[in-house]
Amino acid sequence: IGYLTNYKFKRPFVTIKLAISLDGKIALKNKNSKWISNELSRNFGHMLRANSDGVMTTNSTIKEDDSKLTCRINGLEKHSPLKIVVDRGLTLNENYSIFKNAKKDNLIIYHSSKDQSKIDNYPKNTVLVYINNKKKFLELILNDLANRKIKNLLIESGTIFSTEIIKANLVDQIAFFRSNKIIGNDGLPFVNSLNLKSISDSINTKVINFKVFDNDIYELRRLI
Question: Does residue 210 sit in helix, strand or coil?
Answer without folding.
Answer: strand
